[in-house]
Amino acid sequence: MKNLTAVDLTFRVAVIALAFASLAACAANPAAAPAQSVTPCTYVGRLMDAEHVGFDTNRVAEIAAYDASSDKLVATTKTFFKADSRRNYALRIPMASKSVDGALAPGSTVRIEVKEPNGMVWSGLVVDNDAEIGGPGSVKEVDMVLAYCTNAYGIDNDLLDDLRRAWQNSAYHVEGETFDPRKDYDGDGMSTIGEALSGTNPFDPNDCLSIRSFRRAGQDAGAKDVLTFECRPGRSYRLEVTDSLENPNWQTKEFSRDENGTPINYINVPSTGSSEETPTVYLLPQTGPKAFFRIKAD
Ligand SMILES: [Ca+2]
């Protein structure tokens, strides 16, 4: 087992809901009232490795939260897989109405620790501004990437080394040139970093995240547009649409996986999935004379 102290630079954070109802019970005389247990605060989001492959039920990571002041273990959970959500973990932090007898209360801070299935432990994870837990019943959306990054490109140091070696062994290597992972060496429209994080080959112009085919819906009632794209293991995909590329206003477009399926916003591929699955998705026809689509990999 190897212990690391890591600061993830890529947390994306949004507090999506807050509820304060349970605080009212102690408002009359907060000093005298005993601490009461209240609805937990929940951290939810997507836990990914350095290449943005999500952990799931095939590749289970364990997540633990510690009280930052006492280092006492307060909550644990494991990653899961849901076909219709990019989230793969939910960590419920038990709370009390106030901080007595070691109970966590609004304003307390936690330290997150992650154990990968290979035994590697990421300890001391700093959750940016989200170490402080929210109010009772609050939900904090926190994505976590297990990356150790001290370079200027914002990616894992080992991944950067791997990409540099692959470039040196590729047809795009130029003696004396410095490797820059922000470049699109193979000229397929995606940067080297973008390809590495979406699971395609940065040094193969025929391999990149792309829409493979699109067919407009016919005139029949209920007909749908049909779109296909290639997936990679462990990634989560979403679709966006805009009616103009001059002043694009990209909006999330719902997927529907079959003719009668309930529309969903994400297509998730298990971490042990086929390396080049090409899903066919059916879309409600876009209104208006033009529509431009794009696929995003998380
Ligand atoms: Ca490529």
Explain this structure to me?
By secondary structure, the chain is mostly beta strands. The chain folds into 3 domains: 3-145, no CATH class; 157-198, no CATH class; 211-297, Sandwich (Immunoglobulin-like). Helix content is 6%, strand content 30%. The protein contains 2 helices and 18 strands. It has helices spanning 157-168, 192-198; strands spanning 3-5, 13-17, 37-45, 47-48, 62-67, 73-78, 89-96, 110-115, 121-125, 139-142, 144-145, 211-215, 225-229, 236-242, 251-253, 267-268, 280-283, 292-297. The protein has a 5-stranded mixed beta sheet, with no helix packed on it. Strands 2-10-3-7 form a 4-stranded mixed beta sheet, with no helix packed on it. Strands 14, 15, 16 and 18 form a 4-stranded antiparallel beta sheet that branches. It is globular, with a radius of gyration of 23 Å. The two termini are 28 Å apart. The model is unreliable at 1-30 (pLDDT under 50). Residues 186, 188, 195, 200-202, 204-205, 207-208 line the site of calcium ion (CA).
Give a summary of the structure in a few sentences.
By secondary structure, the protein is mainly β.
Instruction: Provide the domain count.
Output: 3
Distance between the termini: 28 Å
Q: What is the count of DSSP helices, taking H or I runs of 4+ residues?
A: 2
Order of helices and strands: EEEEEEEEEEEHHEEEEEEE
Shape: globular
Q: How many whole angstroms does the radius of gyration measure?
A: 23 Å
DSSP strand content: 25-35%
- Average of per-residue pLDDT values: 82
Low-confidence stretches: 1-30
Q: Give the names of the bound compounds.
A: calcium ion
Number of strands: 18
Helix-strand category = mainly beta
How would a textbook summarize the main sheet?
5 strands, mixed
How much helix is in the residues?
Answer: under 10%
Question: What order do the strands of the largest sheet run in, or round the barrel if closed?
Answer: 1-9-8-5-6
